[in-house]
Amino acid sequence: MDLVTGAVGSLASKLLHLLGEEYKLQTTGLTKQVQSLSAELESIRAFLHKVGNVPWYRLDEQIKVWAREVRDKCYDLEDVFDSFLVHLEDPETADPSRLKRAMHKMGDLFAKGKARHDIANDIEDIMKQLVEVAARRNRYKIDDSIETKPSSTTSDPRLPALYKKPSELVGIDEPRDALIQMLSVGGQEKKIISIVGSGGLGKTTLAKAVYDKLININGRFDCWAFVPVGQNPDQRKILRDILIDLLKPTNAINALVNTRFSLGDLMELDEKQLIDELREQLQGKRYFIVVDDIWERSMWRTVDLAFVDGNCGSRLLTTTRKSEVSKEIGEVYKLHELSDNNSKKLFHSITFGGEEKHPCSDELDKVSNTIIKKCGGLPLAIVTIAEVLARKPIEEWSNVYNSIGFGPDDNKVEDMKKILSFSYYDLPSHLRTCLLYLSTSPEEQFIEKRELILRWIAEGFIHEERGKASFDVGDNYIHELVDRNLVIPVEDKRSGILQGCRVHDMLLRLIRQLSTEENFAVALGKDERSSVEQSKIRRLALLMLTKETNYKDMPRLRSFNATICFTELIPPVCSFKVLRVLVLEYCIGMEGYPIKHIAKLLHLRYIGLSHTPVRKLPKEIGHLKFLQTLLLDDTGIKELPSSVRLLKQLMCLRVDEKTRVPDWIGEMTSLVELEMYHEVLPDLVIRETPPVQKQEMHSGADNKCSIRRFVKELGNLRNLRVLKTGLHLQDQGQGREFLESLSKLHKMQDVSILLPAAFLEMDMGTEPRFALSSLRTLELLNLQFSKLPAWMNGECLPNLCKLKVLLTDADEQDVGNLGTLRQLRDLTLVITRYHRLKLTVCGCGGFDSLIFLHGGPLQFVPETMPRLENIIFSITVFELRDAKISFDFGLENLSSLQCLTVGLDCADASPEEVEEAEAAIRHAVDTHPNHPSLLVKRSNEDKMGPVDADSRIFSRKMYKMLQDSTLNEQIKKLNDQIDVQNNCNSTLYNQAQEMAHTIPQGHPSIAKIQWTSVYVVEMVVLRKQLVDTFQTINDTSDPDQLVYFTSTVLI
């Protein structure tokens, strides 16, 4: 019933909004009505808060009916207020005529006057209905019907977990032995371990298995106790139960002194007396106590006072569903779902009495595997479903499973629902609403974090708190759901940043049922139908629809979500007049769908059209004054309507690389997230492109102007947190301008500049210095810095988790500066200088959090990168051997190394050198104490071959000349060197001529460019032809084309 509380809360905030100065209702007859309504709603809200804290199975049916009536009236009233706000925010007229603008304003005044009159009538009608509802509350004495505490006759469905036979346990041995090992490690001081995991995962069963094994080892402990806690615990009872359990005759003989209290006396002791008695009994004893199912930190702090530490080797084991609780208690052991193999064993042990008794049948295996997969490794779900199916004929299993709800038809299923719902009812009201919203997600679907927060904001579930923006509040909500193990977190494996979440199938079933019962949302799969009356549906999700529905008459629909559906089966959205959220993702056949009508849905806050071929937006989309989110990635839209600039509340805009960047993006100052690309085509390619294709391409000059404007105006977007784009910066001045704009965005968290057609080398002598304390991700693959920027350190970027950077040169001090980034978990470091083939990581600490490293090889010394697990190295064998650098990288000094991937470039190296390199790397891995996995990927094996010493010496001289030269200087030096070459190879010349006329659009990395330029001596071509070709490319003013030709032709 908590959804009612949420509806009232959302309505209350709107009432305050209407009473504000902005709408000046004080001058109308509405003020008293709105104030009276606000007072009535506050009274209802207080009462419903009590109702919301009582689980559904303990609520009187009369209360349920009454609360649903309140909820529906509140929703209706919210629709009235939303419509009123829309009328007051009429779209701006685009007509430049003064007379027409004046006429529009006059019409606007009349419309607003009529809107005030209409809302007064609507409020009066709904007030009468609410008064009648409130009267029934008093008449039927509903307040007296609320049972705030469980009755004494209610049994705890978790109790059976304490009495399972060892033979019934599957997959318990490994976690049990791991926990016993953890408890055994350490000295004589008291040690506490907390098992954490979601409901139904088997925490109690595991704790009892550990307990049973340890107390049966003679002499291990002097005394022991196992005490369940649960929600809303009586702390005196917990302390008393521990004391009683310790005093049982089955405990160690004479382990405890005789207590001076009888059982009756214990019942009268207060908390302090019980704590004192426990401390006296445990003093000087080696005890083992399990405290099961802790929900609150405050409760643990009190109980822990009784566990005296006498340096006797005492141990405590706790279980909880909340990560925040487990972290405070002690060392954390996270319990995971059963493996697929153990899930099958458990399922078959119940349905057939054992794995060996499982009948061999492909059809049966298919049905069983489907059911087991749906249970998602959750032991409670597997046991519950298996026990239901064990009583049914095998041929009925599929139908029986599909029909299993969470109703009272089966006690086992009802018990499972209760266990899963404990976590739900422990949530505060705002989080219950947010969790139920996930019921509209497809099964096993990844739910992107930022999209979910934006939907919550659009629905009105999140409001700004003092000192916190709504987006930050939503971020806290998701982390709290993760900490409570109600959703499965999905993190970036490298950086550890939370990307989103998934909902366990069994929990999804529960919240879908609760959501339907409360008329909060309806989610329908392929052939499903809902029992909810169409006209009352508020939120509808159509998931992988295959048949046409009759869901068309839904005047109160606030959220519509269609995922993987044919659009001819989707009802037209134009009839959903109060729609706030519209999601059409991965939908097929949009050609005939009336998408243009979305501009008439003036309540819209969120439009998600990702991966649906829309092609074009209506030009009137600027009328949607309340629109906050517009997702258009992978839609094929080539240009945004200019009216988008009128969307002053827009927080998130995503388009793809096909969409032209508008001139006015700097005006969108409310943007929190921007994903937008700049497609820049090199002038040379445009010139060589056939005329027909040219018409389909953006003008290179226009795009360069667009980039220049974008870079300059980027600094205006002061609320921006996420920027994902591709930029081909033209010169160092533009590069500095980009960095200066970036330095103004103090709220920025994630910057990803994807690798464009080319990149710009930045001289770091002119860089701006700045600090972005909120920045977590920085991927600057469009810039190659001459040296590590001074601001890339732990002081300026204290929260940076992920960094991708290209450097021309670096030294050990630069690596040391990167080591000060204490939160850095993922580093991609590319250094293009030939003499920096292997840098030494200093042993003075740093890189405390680094887990993933990608780039050229480094030399590791002891006590560096203590958490580094995964390395990807790119090695050019010839270069290392030519520079007389060994293949010993000091891997033995990386204590946490788990995985090594090495890319071996074999070009110009002899087969013997390649084998020597790979053998050295394999030896280092084989002798590493962790025995990390190794993957070696060879490239350019066809280019292996013996290289004579004279050629290598000449190549080295050539490289030294080219190393620090400008491009024009390189041309001159190449020209001079070719003059002294007497050998001419006509085959290579012909190949060079061919390549000169077919320059590809893509460019290789700078590292490859410089390394391959070394081999000019092997690329003997006619002097005049080569220089002419160079000069032709150089005339295009595109230095990247010149460098590309230098490297590719001369290789």
TrEMBL record:
<dbReference type="Pfam" id="PF23598">
    <property type="entry name" value="LRR_14"/>
</dbReference>
<dbReference type="Pfam" id="PF00931">
    <property type="entry name" value="NB-ARC"/>
</dbReference>
<feature type="domain" description="Disease resistance protein winged helix">
    <location>
        <begin position="442"/>
        <end position="511"/>
    </location>
</feature>
<keyword id="KW-0433">Leucine-rich repeat</keyword>
<protein>
    <submittedName>
        <fullName>Uncharacterized protein</fullName>
    </submittedName>
</protein>
<dbReference type="GO" id="GO:0002758">
    <property type="term" value="P:innate immune response-activating signaling pathway"/>
</dbReference>
<dbReference type="InterPro" id="IPR002182">
    <property type="entry name" value="NB-ARC"/>
</dbReference>
<dbReference type="GO" id="GO:0042742">
    <property type="term" value="P:defense response to bacterium"/>
</dbReference>
<dbReference type="InterPro" id="IPR038005">
    <property type="entry name" value="RX-like_CC"/>
</dbReference>
<dbReference type="InterPro" id="IPR042197">
    <property type="entry name" value="Apaf_helical"/>
</dbReference>
<dbReference type="InterPro" id="IPR058922">
    <property type="entry name" value="WHD_DRP"/>
</dbReference>
<keyword id="KW-0547">Nucleotide-binding</keyword>
<feature type="domain" description="Disease resistance R13L4/SHOC-2-like LRR">
    <location>
        <begin position="557"/>
        <end position="934"/>
    </location>
</feature>
<feature type="domain" description="Disease resistance N-terminal">
    <location>
        <begin position="7"/>
        <end position="92"/>
    </location>
</feature>
<dbReference type="InterPro" id="IPR044974">
    <property type="entry name" value="Disease_R_plants"/>
</dbReference>
<dbReference type="InterPro" id="IPR036388">
    <property type="entry name" value="WH-like_DNA-bd_sf"/>
</dbReference>
<dbReference type="InterPro" id="IPR027417">
    <property type="entry name" value="P-loop_NTPase"/>
</dbReference>
<dbReference type="InterPro" id="IPR041118">
    <property type="entry name" value="Rx_N"/>
</dbReference>
<comment type="similarity">
    <text>Belongs to the disease resistance NB-LRR family.</text>
</comment>
<dbReference type="Pfam" id="PF18052">
    <property type="entry name" value="Rx_N"/>
</dbReference>
<feature type="domain" description="NB-ARC">
    <location>
        <begin position="176"/>
        <end position="353"/>
    </location>
</feature>
<dbReference type="Pfam" id="PF23559">
    <property type="entry name" value="WHD_DRP"/>
</dbReference>
<keyword id="KW-0175">Coiled coil</keyword>
<keyword id="KW-0677">Repeat</keyword>
<keyword id="KW-0611">Plant defense</keyword>
<dbReference type="GO" id="GO:0009626">
    <property type="term" value="P:plant-type hypersensitive response"/>
</dbReference>
<dbReference type="InterPro" id="IPR055414">
    <property type="entry name" value="LRR_R13L4/SHOC2-like"/>
</dbReference>
<dbReference type="InterPro" id="IPR032675">
    <property type="entry name" value="LRR_dom_sf"/>
</dbReference>
<dbReference type="GO" id="GO:0043531">
    <property type="term" value="F:ADP binding"/>
</dbReference>
